[in-house]
Each structure stands twice: as C-alpha cells, then as structure tokens.
Amino acid sequence: MSLRIRAITLDLDDTLWPFAPIGARVDFVQHDWLLANCPRTAERFPVDAMRRLRDVINAEHPHLAHDFSRLRKLTLARAMELAGDDVAHVEPAFEAFFAERNRVECYPDAIDALERIAARVPVAAVTNGNADLGRIGLRHLFAFQLGASQHGAPKPDPTIYRAACERLGQAPQHVLHVGDDIDLDVVGAAQAGLRTCWIHRNDLHPEPTWPHAHVRPDLAFPTLDALADWLDAHLQDDVA
C-alpha cells in the first residue's frame, strides 16, 4: 500500500489509554470533594443524582455538547444553587474532578510507540474529550492538541480534522488520522479527506469486525506499536 503520510492526527481516550477506569472514578472523586467542602450539595446530589442532573443540563445546552468541561461546571453550579451552597466552589470542585480525569494509565505499548511515531512525523492530538496532555506529561510528544471545546465542533464534524491539517501545514490526503472509534475516527476523518488508521484494541474490540461497506480504514492494527512498526517499514522515502 502506498500512503504518502506527512503528519498524524491522533485520538486520545481509548487510543493511548483506556477511558473506562477514568470514567468509573471521576464522579466519586468529585463527590468526595463535595462531601468535604459542600456537604449540602453532596447530600442532595449523590453520584447518581448528580449524573441525572448533568443529563438535564446537557439537554438544556445542546449547543455546548462539544464542551464537556463547561457542561460539568454548569452542572456543579446548578447543584450548588439548589442545595444552597456558594457557587464560588464550582472551580475547586471542578479541579478535583479534572485532576482525577487526567490521572491516566496508558496502554503498555502506547508511550514507546508514540515516541517512535513522533520522532518520524509531526503528531497532533484531535479529541472530543477534555484530557490535558500537559497534566498527563505527554505534551512534548505532540505538535499541538486540538480539542472539540477549543475548535467549537466535535468529531466527526469535518472542520475539526481540516483545522488540524491546516495547523500541521499538510493537505488532508497526506495526514493519517489514528483512533479507536469507528465513526468518529475513521468514517468522519475519511469523509474529511484524511487517510485513516483504526486502532482496534482488544479491551474494546475483542473480535474486530468492520461494519461499513462504503468506507474502510486505510490501515488497521490492534495496538499503536503495530502502527509504529508499519511507519518504520513504509515511510523511509516519504519523510526524507
């Protein structure tokens, strides 16, 4: 296969690290902070009730669907108002959540593979989530991070992939978008004109089956280091 890859855009959650363990912890960490600092809010909105309130806030603000951090802050503000706590606690309560959200455990292959890939071509993070590569300690391996909240629209909106390509200084057909999500990371990027690589890790895709006939990934691997191996074998001439 001949792919002239000059740069890579890379998804984060479930591509570099599993998100499920993070998602299972963050609301409880936030609740523990509320117990210590806003007990009335914690009593009125235990974890399940806070999640239901967040669903209400999300429904009230569909125009913010791309901005998870803003929606969480709005939820905290509403909860504190209803419970009679000072909304000045929103930012420190969010910080408790955000610190835990960025406590990630990368897949065993991910950091070494990312270092190998970043040494060969520029890599930009393109994510719908609110992970912070600086806090995580991986920012130095990326040209930049483009989040849906920053861009104003989430994947699979074609503008977010094209904005990343423009910042990379490359035409979309020379940028490989890499990620785990079939629709967000493969179909969406392909429709925006990028080349695509599906990372079908075993924890999410134990028996990977591609569901679409109209579009297929250019590459597909179960791990990121397999992509790094492919780049080592195929890109010597293209990036010289």
TrEMBL record:
Gene3D superfamilies: 1.20.120.1600, HAD superfamily/HAD-like. It comes from the Bacteria. The keyword Transcription regulation does not apply. The keyword DNA-binding does not apply. GO terms for molecular function: hydrolase activity. InterPro entries: HAD-like_sf (IPR036412), HAD-SF_hydro_IA (IPR006439), HAD_sf (IPR023214), S-2-haloacid_dehalogenase (IPR051540). Keywords: Hydrolase. PANTHER family: HALOACID DEHALOGENASE, TYPE II (AFU_ORTHOLOGUE AFUA_2G07750)-RELATED (PTHR43316:SF3), HYDROLASE, HALOACID DELAHOGENASE-RELATED (PTHR43316). NCBIfam families: HAD-SF-IA-v1 (TIGR01549), HAD-SF-IA-v3 (TIGR01509). This is Hydrolase.
